[in-house]
Amino acid sequence: MTPVATTVSFDMRVPDWAGPPAQIYGAALEMGAYADSIGVDRIGLMEHHGSQDGYLPQPFVMAGGIAAMTKRVRLLLGAVILPLHDPVLIAEQMAVVDLMSGGRLSVIFGAGYVAQEFEMFGVSLRDRGRVLDEKIAIVLRALAGERFEVEGRPVFVRPLPVQDPHDMIYVGGGVAASALRAARMGVGLGPMRADIIPIYEAECRRLGREPGDYFRPCHRLPGIIMLSDDPARTWALLEPHAFHVVAEYAKWAAQEPGSNSPFAGLTTLAALRASNMFAVWTPDELVANAHLVEDRGTFVFQPLVGGFPPAEGWKSLELLAGVIPRLKALVR
After folding, report:
1. Are 239 and 272 in contact, with CB atoms under 8 Å apart?
2. Count of domains in the chain?
3. Is residue 1 part of a domain?
4. Which regions of the chain does DSSP assign to beta strands (E)?
5. Which CATH number fits the domain that encloses residue 89?
6. Is 190 helix (H, G, I), strand (E, B) or coil?
7. pLDDT tens digits, residue range 157-187?
């Protein structure tokens, strides 16, 4: 039995109308330190590139900053779009952040889907699955301390991380191929859909090993929660920021052929409120909904979502501080 888990995430989106990015970045670092001090379980950092609103393009840099200001909380980066990157550099970044944090880093690798990002880095979107496989294998070998060659290129990474690389790495995605890839690579699973978890578990056992770690999406939960003593007031402040985030994700999803994006159709504020992607709850409502957090699931809070004013985000975190002891008293 485990306590109800909590995650505080940052995507660092700052629309032009939302305020200066330096203010948001400073607040995120301070909020990360505060989240650590109140007992939050994970800090999540995401990655995208070439976004007009400055979506976080360098999660390892941000993770290093947060690692220096925290002692206990785990740092979860995901999804890092590995096909866009040199896997040797990624291995080096992982090792350094893991050492800085004392072994608190977890990384979800994803294949990516935004065409403009692949164009920006000169990588073929069509080949992303094959490239992801190749680069995960290189990262694993490099972080295991091997000295080897890849197509004539010598690879040797030092320093090495605190953790076993197989325990640090997760494969992200929402299709069966993601679950099979994670099992084949001997790493964890960071699924977008809970129904691929049994595929992962079965494939691991077929390959003769017990399943590794995984996260469970809780589809009955809101994607992002804001705490408030006055939900109506907070909703009014949150709506333009939440609507911006949804609209930007919808633009990216529209580039992906056959996409079944959850952001499609959320073109009005009424539709946004009804979507269950965002919720503004009182602390008592949070505790009352704790039964919706399934095993290996988590409540997710994003106090600066879409450039949300830091002063308002702090109110949510301070309310979370008061409710975490109640959540930890509840076990699944």
Report:
1. yes
2. 1
3. no
4. 6-10, 42-45, 74-81, 105-110, 147-150, 153-156, 169-173, 188-191, 224-227, 278-281, 299-301
5. 3.20.20.30
6. strand
7. 999 999 999 999 999 999 999 999 999 999 9
